[in-house]
């Protein structure tokens, strides 16, 4: 029924809370960076917890690409109720995950009008991906890019140890 | 698969964030009250939003009891993946909803050990109920009571206009 709505509403509340708390502080300079990293860290922990449940009865993955495919299908579907639309890789540890109708951006008008608001609503999800990968033994840097709402690209760069 | 885990993890993050933010402030006296009401207000808005989606294609309710039953079954199931176990009323506007294994308390050890931590984890859900009722035209006061984890009673008192 409205399962997906629960996550979307909670996510909106979290973003609003993080930005509101920061606005009452004095160090406005640091504001934007702190908020994004607070949200990213929350996503990281949630991603870690979720992947642990997801992969409990799973076979191991045969390589990084296999793992990324699992993330794009099963992991993404459970959280965002749809799969990633396109997965690309350079086969050297960089992956681009494209979601053409990213659930957390669909409430905005399409187009470029609210483009500068987008990073607020992507930080948590970058953390989700990074947390999931981290729990599976892959350290990564995850960034997001929006050029036209509600489509979104996540870039994952696996860090070689 | 792990749909319910997503909500539980997010909820834990929210509680942790609200209490952490408050801990960095100076007015320790007000601390506990403010945190609970911040969480309650977040739950209120989420409850309002959710009930709007839930009841979009629903017939209207024939009376308050009918509405409470809907809340105990459909609304509760979607959020907490189970129904309320017991609903009581004095037929004068007071309802007691009992959940014997309340999802947000099951991660604690059973019994009385962490009883004083419980209110943190109930405020959001009190808000959920109050928000849902409010959007259906009923103003209410919602409180929660735990005597033995993970069982929990929510008391709803409808305010006569």
UniProtKB/TrEMBL annotation, chains A, B:
One of its GO terms (cellular component) is endoplasmic reticulum. Its main location: endoplasmic reticulum. InterPro entries: NO_sig/Golgi_transp_ligand-bd, TRAPP_component, TRAPPC6/Trs33. It is found in: Endoplasmic reticulum; Golgi apparatus, cis-Golgi network. GO terms for biological process: endoplasmic reticulum to Golgi vesicle-mediated transport; nervous system development. Keywords: Endoplasmic reticulum, Golgi apparatus, Neurogenesis. Gene3D superfamilies: Trafficking protein particle complex subunit 3. Belongs to the TRAPP small subunits family. BET3 subfamily. Component of a transport protein particle (TRAPP) complex that may function in specific stages of inter-organelle traffic. Specifically involved in the early development of neural circuitry, likely by controlling the frequency and amplitude of intracellular calcium transients implicated in the regulation of neuron differentiation and survival. This is Trafficking protein particle complex subunit 6B. It comes from Sinocyclocheilus anshuiensis. The gene is LOC107684201.
């Amino acid at each position: 029924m409205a399962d997906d709505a629960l996550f979307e509403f909670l996510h909106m509340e979290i973003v609003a809370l993080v930005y509101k708390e920061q606005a009452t502080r004095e160090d406005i300079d640091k504001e934007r960076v702190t908020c994004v990293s607070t949200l990213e860290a929350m996503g990281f922990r949630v991603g870690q917890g979720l992947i642990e449940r997801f992969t409990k009865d799973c076979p191991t993955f045969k390589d990084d690409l296999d793992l990324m495919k699992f993330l794009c299908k099963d992991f993404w579907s459970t959280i965002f109720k749809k799969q990633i639309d396109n997965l690309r890789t350079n086969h050297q540890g960089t992956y681009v995950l494209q979601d053409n109708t990213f659930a957390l951006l669909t409430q905005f008008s399409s187009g470029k009008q609210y483009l500068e608001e987008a990073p607020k609503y992507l930080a948590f999800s970058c953390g989700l991906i990074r947390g999931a990968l981290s729990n599976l033994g892959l350290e990564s840097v995850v960034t997001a890019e929006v050029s036209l709402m509600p489509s979104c690209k996540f870039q994952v760069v696996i860090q070689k140890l």
